[in-house]
Request: fold
Amino acid sequence: MARAKQSADPSELEKLEWPYDWPPPWRNERLVGHALAERTMLAAQQSGKLHHAWLLTGPRGIGKATLAWRFARYLLAGQAGGLFGAPDGLEVARDAPGRALIDARSHPDLYHLRRTMHPDTGRIRNEIVVDDVRGLSEFMHMTPAMGEWRVAIVDSADEMNRNAANAVLKVLEEPPPKAVLLIVAHAPGRLLPTIRSRCRRLALQPLADEVVISLLGDHAPNTAPDERTALARLAEGSIGRALELASAGSLALYREMVEVLSTLPDLDMPRLHGFAERFAKRGEEANA
Reply:
């Protein structure tokens, strides 16, 4: 199964990992705006010279993890050629053998390295610790159980502490055959240089505003068209950030802030204090 230390019912643990209304990367059907990156990974695999480790970089919330999961599905369940030869994309049919196991993160040739739940607090840790990495090396050197490849996804490398990063580096230093490590990183400059140097880097760019607006229509249909436009601008090319802003009501808070500041230099102090109190309350709720 997709190995990662678990201390709770899988469905309950997933709610802690992904407390959002939109699909998590491992079940996201769509990736928009990164066709070139998809073609790059597909061409690398079809060339027969697939690099053993990929570093997928770019701002948070633009689709890096979704790309990693799409490529994992392709390697584990989607390489069979159709009537016209090799596949020309990373799409995998829902009824493809092994597809359901991948979406459930229970495929025997898949390893998902991420933050786990602390057994004492019952909360997801703030970082990936070395205990979370211990099974990765063993997994990568095992013989594939269902197909040709074994795939591990690290999401995200930014959350690894120093010991965890050193443990991942050891895996990279001795890459086994037919095993691929897909590393998601929001700020690759903070990673160990030795990790960066052992990976093939694929940089994803922020999404165009029109793409974010379109995706907001799909995942946040209750937002008005003008709200989607404003959210896209605030999110700076990140659909993940735009959805978080929409779900948290941050757009209304932002507009109120603009209105308050528009009274400069004669600020409406009672209104400013009220805004500050609501802003502080929102921060407390987010950290609760």
In short: The longest strand covers residues 179-185. Residues 111 and 136 are 7 Å apart (CA to CA). The beta strands are 53-57, 110-113, 150-155, 179-185, 200-203. The longest helix spans residues 269-286.
